[in-house]
């Protein structure tokens, strides 16, 4: 007869907003969690930087500043890492796995910079590595990619994965606010950090895009591979231009498989990028308001799928961590393992210039004969096909809006550079990529 298994003991690294919420849920939902896992889940210890802070609802006897000793303790079965950053988080997780512990982490920066090392350690040590909370908070997204869709062929992942920037762009769209006013409001309401760089410059979204691309395409992608543009340059004119196109500006994380010219399976590589772009109001992502996140996945057999919900915050993030905890604990009870990551595809990440996109370009031009032809000539010179042109007279000047067909990004940006140099162009008032229409 199989011996009865005792409680499973959890070491927690970090006790901030998310960590303390995890402890609260483990305590308050203990009976349900025990029933779902088959054995109780107990907190064995909590590694913190300082012992002298009062932590409501946390037994001080559980606290330690020696994280390294905690993760290798014999009475610890699994480790939850919520300290973030690269070090010491990476070393601690590697030590834990080497000591046979399974690991649950919310660490997007580390997974995006060095996921390969963690995946390899999990494979070699026979440990589980779960990280649902690393991308889009509470939204079940990584488990569907790692498990439900692992038999399918994902073509594209298109997502709003940063709540702060979505809140700011939504305010700009709804109230006509400028970027700085919308940012100040987001900070006052606690949506944006005092130093908003990671969010508004797109670093946070780029890390998430790297993780999504690794899982979607089974290929190594790091944050450094991701083309990144933030939203600090988005103007009220860009947002008004989108409005006239019945579109909306969103910061998008886009992971795309680029097919080979002969259509061979596997393709030429992948394109992974983050930038503000116009999407039509009819697209499901256009209706994502406030600080919510949503991710649209297109797979060969499954077709289009949409995942929506809260992308940040203590409770939503703790929900994702608890889900992982129960999954790992069930595996331990059953003597089995969860999915292992194998980034076997080794697809090249293509440079942004080779990515096929569409542009919206708004120009203030002199209103006289030959101007439209001169502008069209620059697009033709770079083999960029124009889809639509709209012109509105403004006295001696005119406003010209050009929307292109799909073309390599290098050709589109070279066209815009040439337009900036033309005498007849008073100003290139707005340039924005157009996504979500094929
Ligand atoms: N700062 C992020 C956001 C949440 O605004 O969505 C953490 O990734």
Automatic annotation (TrEMBL):
<dbReference type="InterPro" id="IPR036291">
    <property type="entry name" value="NAD(P)-bd_dom_sf"/>
</dbReference>
<dbReference type="InterPro" id="IPR016204">
    <property type="entry name" value="HDH"/>
</dbReference>
<dbReference type="InterPro" id="IPR002912">
    <property type="entry name" value="ACT_dom"/>
</dbReference>
<dbReference type="Pfam" id="PF03447">
    <property type="entry name" value="NAD_binding_3"/>
</dbReference>
<keyword id="KW-0521">NADP</keyword>
<dbReference type="InterPro" id="IPR001342">
    <property type="entry name" value="HDH_cat"/>
</dbReference>
<comment type="function">
    <text>Catalyzes the conversion of L-aspartate-beta-semialdehyde (L-Asa) to L-homoserine (L-Hse), the third step in the biosynthesis of threonine and methionine from aspartate.</text>
</comment>
<dbReference type="Pfam" id="PF01842">
    <property type="entry name" value="ACT"/>
</dbReference>
<comment type="similarity">
    <text>Belongs to the homoserine dehydrogenase family.</text>
</comment>
<dbReference type="Pfam" id="PF00742">
    <property type="entry name" value="Homoserine_dh"/>
</dbReference>
<dbReference type="InterPro" id="IPR005106">
    <property type="entry name" value="Asp/hSer_DH_NAD-bd"/>
</dbReference>
<keyword id="KW-0560">Oxidoreductase</keyword>
<keyword id="KW-0028">Amino-acid biosynthesis</keyword>
<protein>
    <recommendedName>
        <fullName>Homoserine dehydrogenase</fullName>
        <ecNumber>1.1.1.3</ecNumber>
    </recommendedName>
</protein>
<comment type="pathway">
    <text>Amino-acid biosynthesis; L-methionine biosynthesis via de novo pathway; L-homoserine from L-aspartate: step 3/3.</text>
</comment>
<dbReference type="InterPro" id="IPR045865">
    <property type="entry name" value="ACT-like_dom_sf"/>
</dbReference>
<keyword id="KW-0486">Methionine biosynthesis</keyword>
<keyword id="KW-0791">Threonine biosynthesis</keyword>
<keyword id="KW-0915">Sodium</keyword>
<dbReference type="InterPro" id="IPR019811">
    <property type="entry name" value="HDH_CS"/>
</dbReference>
<comment type="pathway">
    <text>Amino-acid biosynthesis; L-threonine biosynthesis; L-threonine from L-aspartate: step 3/5.</text>
</comment>
<feature type="domain" description="ACT">
    <location>
        <begin position="360"/>
        <end position="433"/>
    </location>
</feature>
């Amino acid at each position: 007869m199989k011996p009865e298994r005792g409680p499973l003991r959890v070491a927690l690294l970090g006790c901030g907003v998310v960590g303390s919420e995890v402890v609260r849920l483990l305590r308050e939902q203990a009976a349900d969690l025990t029933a779902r896992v088959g054995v109780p889940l107990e907190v064995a210890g909590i590694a913190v930087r300082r012992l002298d802070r009062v932590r409501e609802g946390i037994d001080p006897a559980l606290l330690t500043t020696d994280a390294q000793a905690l993760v290798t303790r014999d009475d610890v079965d699994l480790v939850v890492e919520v300290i973030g950053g690269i070090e010491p988080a990476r070393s601690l997780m590697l030590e834990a796995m080497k000591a046979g512990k399974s690991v649950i982490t919310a660490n997007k920066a580390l997974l995006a910079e060095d996921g390969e090392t963690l995946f390899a350690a999990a494979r070699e040590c026979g440990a589980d590595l779960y990280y649902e909370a690393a991308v889009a908070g509470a939204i079940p997204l990584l488990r569907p990619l790692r498990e439900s869709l692992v038999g399918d062929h994902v073509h594209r992942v298109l997502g709003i994965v940063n709540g702060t920037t979505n809140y700011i762009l939504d305010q700009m769209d709804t109230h006509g606010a400028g970027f700085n006013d919308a940012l100040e409001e987001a900070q006052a309401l606690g949506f944006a950090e005092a130093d908003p760089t990671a969010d508004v410059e797109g670093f946070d979204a780029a890390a998430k895009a790297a993780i999504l691309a690794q899982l979607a395409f089974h290929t190594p992608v790091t944050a450094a591979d991701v083309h990144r543009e933030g939203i600090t340059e988005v103007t009220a004119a860009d947002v008004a231009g989108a409005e006239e196109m019945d579109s909306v500006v969103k910061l998008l994380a886009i992971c795309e498989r680029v097919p080979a010219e002969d259509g061979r399976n596997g393709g030429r590589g992948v394109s992974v990028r983050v930038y503000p772009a116009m999407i039509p109001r009819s697209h499901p992502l256009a209706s994502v308001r406030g600080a919510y996140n949503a991710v649209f996945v297109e797979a060969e057999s499954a077709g289009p799928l949409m995942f929506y919900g809260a992308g940040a915050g203590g409770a939503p993030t703790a929900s994702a961590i608890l889900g992982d905890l129960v999954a790992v604990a069930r595996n331990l009870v059953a003597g089995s393992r969860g999915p292992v990551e194998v980034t076997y595809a080794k697809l090249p990440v293509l440079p942004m210039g080779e990515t096929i996109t569409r542009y919206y370009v708004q120009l203030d031009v002199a209103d006289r004969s030959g101007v439209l032809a001169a502008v069209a000539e620059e697009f033709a010179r770079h083999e960029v096909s124009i889809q639509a042109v709209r012109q509105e007279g403004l006295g001696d000047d005119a406003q010209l809006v050009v929307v292109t067909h799909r073309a390599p990004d290098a050709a589109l940006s070279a066209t815009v550079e040439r337009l900036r140099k033309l005498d007849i162009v008073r100003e290139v008032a707005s340039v924005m990529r157009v996504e979500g229409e094929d």
